[in-house]
Every structure is written in C-alpha cells, then in structure tokens.
Amino acid sequence: MPSSAIIPSSVINPSPAIITVAITGSVGQKRHNPAIPITVEEQVAATRAAFEAGASLAHLHVRRDDGAPTSDPALFERLGRGIREACPGMIVQFSTGGRSGTGSERGGMLHLEPDMASLSTGSVNFPGRVYENHPVLIRELAAKMKAHGVKPEIEVFDLSMLYRALDLVEEGLIEGPLHVQFVMGVQNAMPAVRQAFDFMADELERLMPEATWTGAGIGRHHFEVLGWALSRGGHARTGLEDNIRLDRDVLAPSNAALVERVAAMCADLGRSVATAQEARTLLHLP
Ligand code: ZN
User: Fold this and answer.
1) ∠ at Cα 75 (72, 76), nearest 5°?
2) Distance from the CA of 210 to the center of ligand 1, in angstroms?
3) Residue range 7-26: average pLDDT?
4) Distance from the CA of 6 to the center of ligand 1, in angstroms?
5) How many distinct helices (H) and strands (E) make up the chain?
6) How far is the CA of 264 from the centre of ligand 1 (A)?
7) Distance of CA 17 from the midpoint of ligand 1 (Å)
8) Is the pLDDT of residue 2 over 50?
9) CB 71 within 8 A of CB 105
10) What is the 16 CA–ligand 1 centroid distance (Å)?
C-alpha cells in the first residue's frame, strides 16, 4: 500500500524551485573568471541581473578591494542595503564561512539581521586546509542567529553535519524546520556520488519531513548535482562561487547566465522557478 510517509509530498506535488545564487565566494578571483564580482557595486549589479533571471536567494561573501576575503561588517552592511534596494523581496543570506575570518569574527555581521546566514555544523577537510567549526563556535553562531532572528542555512559538507543540525533543533538552539544544503564535490570533502546524495536527502526527509533542502555541486559536478536535487523535489544553488564555467571549455559570462541555465533545467524537469515571495513562504521567512 502506498504510504505518504515514504513518498515525500514534494515528489507528488513539486513545489516551485528556489534558485540560490552564490555570486562571489571567498576563493575565486578575476584571474579565474573576470565576471566574479568583487566590489560591493559589482556585487549589487551581479545580484540584480541574477534576480531578474530567476534567483530568489543571494548567498553573499564580501571582499576587500584587492580581492581578499574579509568579514568586515561595514561591507556586509553596504551590500545588504544595496541588494534590498535593487532586488525587492530577494532573500539576503550572509556567509559565516571560515576563510573570511576566525572564530567569533565570522558572525560579526549577524546583528545586521540578514534574512539568513550559512552555518556549518561540523568540521571537514578542504583543499589544503581544515575547515574548522569547533562545537563551541557552532553553538555560539547558532545562538547569535537565533537572537537576531536570522534563519540558518545548514551547510552539510559531510554526513555527520546533518545529524548535528537535527540535534541543535532538538536542543532548541535552532528553530525548525531546517533548511539544509548538501554540498558535494569539494576536494577532500564529500564527493559527488548519487548514492550518498540520495541517502542524505532520504535521511532528512525521514527525520524532518517538513525541512527544505538544496543541492550544491562544486566545480565540474555542478549541473549534475543540481539535476539530482531538482528531480527529487529539492532546490538548487548556482553562481560563480560554486562553478565558473558553463561547460568544460566555456567560462560563465555572469552569475545571471548560470541562473538562466538552472531555470532552463527547472523547466525541463517540470518545476517552476520560485519568486522571492514563494521562496519566503517555502522557507518560512517573513
Ligand atoms: Zn559561500
């Protein structure tokens, strides 16, 4: 007998797909792809074009003018304000990722009350470094997000991080339902393996059926992982942070071009692209 408990409702009634655009990141430079926006002015213009192409959520890092990553709250403030003006309703998500600062500094902009902020719930190896997220820091960042009404996006770079995020909901440090992003293809972390992807999505749907989730494929696995996510009711993340190419030989001319490609994938898979308002409803944001 078919049971709704084992068939996620998202598969039966595919909801609109939220396209996140990660415009800049903390690693890529103009020498890798000249379209990577670095200054706040470039970032606002790139986000606006991506918004017009269908992105409803902007994942944001800030850079100094020389391209170095930073977590300077003054830059986040200018960027957040610029995007709110240029892209009405778009969801603003600040990164608390580890290249832009150390320890508490990484949450130094949360008082600006973005709609969302990224939160990694464990440590993992990255190319050439450890991406360290001490349990004490994870709790500190989660508590600060909660105090400022910022919804975390859980960055799952390894399986344990999924279960740790569910623990934090249980403990009351994060308000459910979770929004989780499965990140695959980072060298030294979780590879882009379909079985691993399906296992994580199955586990989240089993343990928190009301959660929302996104697939993020890094580098050459980018569009493959997005296809896995979109075809089973998840959401998609693209942008020059994750992938600088349209295909093996062609650099993406802009963040918007990547969003257009993902919007076309949504159409092929029978998913509509969420408006900013629909994305807010799906993510339980005001
Ligand atoms: Zn990021």
Assistant:
1) 90
2) 25
3) 79
4) 32
5) 9, 14
6) 24
7) 20
8) no
9) yes
10) 23
